[in-house]
Backbone:
C-alpha cells in the first residue's frame, strides 16, 4: 500500500508553485475578461498590447483573480480538513499540515471536523460523516477541473525522481 509523506518544500519548489499560481491566476483573469487563449495581452505588463491604463486594468483584474483563488483555496482547506478528520487524522496532525498550528487551534477553526470517538477518552480522532467525502467526486466528474488538475501536475510537479 502506498503512503504519502510530505517533505519540506525547497526554495525551488516554492518558486515553481508561485509561477504556477501566477499563470493560473492570469489565465483565470483572462477568462473572466472574455479573452480567448490567443488574444493579447500575455501578461498584465505586456506593453506591446497595453498602454498605462490597460496595464492598470490588467493588474486589477489579476488581483481580483488572485483573491478568488485565495477564497477557493480556503474552501478546499475546509473541505480537506473535514475529509482528513473523517479518515481519522488527529487535530495535532492537521495542525502540522496547516503550518504548525496547535491541535486546539484546528478544533477552534474547524469545529466538528475533529471530534473524540466514544470509548476513547481524549482521543483526537474524527467521527465518520459524509460531509466532505461526497464533495470530492464532483470535482473528479467535472472534465474541466480534472483536465486542469492533470495539466497542472504534469507541468509543475517534479517527477518521482525529483528531476524537472
Residues:
Amino acid at each position: 500500500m502506498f503512503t504519502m509523506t510530505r517533505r519540506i518544500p525547497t526554495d525551488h519548489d516554492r518558486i515553481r508553485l508561485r509561477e504556477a499560481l501566477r499563470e493560473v491566476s492570469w489565465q483565470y483573469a483572462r477568462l473572466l475578461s472574455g479573452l480567448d487563449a490567443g488574444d493579447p495581452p500575455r501578461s498584465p505588463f505586456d506593453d506591446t498590447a497595453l498602454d498605462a491604463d490597460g496595464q492598470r486594468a490588467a493588474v486589477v483584474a489579476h488581483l481580483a483573480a488572485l483573491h478568488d483563488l485565495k477564497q477557493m483555496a480556503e474552501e478546499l482547506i475546509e473541505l480537506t480538513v473535514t475529509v482528513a478528520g473523517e479518515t481519522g487524522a488527529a487535530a495535532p496532525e492537521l495542525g502540522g499540515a496547516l503550518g504548525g498550528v496547535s491541535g486546539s487551534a484546528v478544533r477552534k477553526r474547524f469545529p466538528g471536523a475533529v471530534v473524540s470517538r466514544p470509548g476513547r477518552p481524549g482521543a483526537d480522532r474524527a467521527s465518520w460523516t459524509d460531509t466532505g467525502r461526497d464533495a470530492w467526486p464532483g470535482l473528479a466528474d467535472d472534465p474541466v477541473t480534472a483536465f486542469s488538475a492533470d495539466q497542472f501536475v504534469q507541468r509543475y510537479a517534479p517527477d518521482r525522481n525529483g528531476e524537472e
About this structure: The helical segments are 11-32, 52-86, 91-97, 103-109, 135-141, 143-156. The CA atoms of residues 157 and 164 lie 8 Å apart.
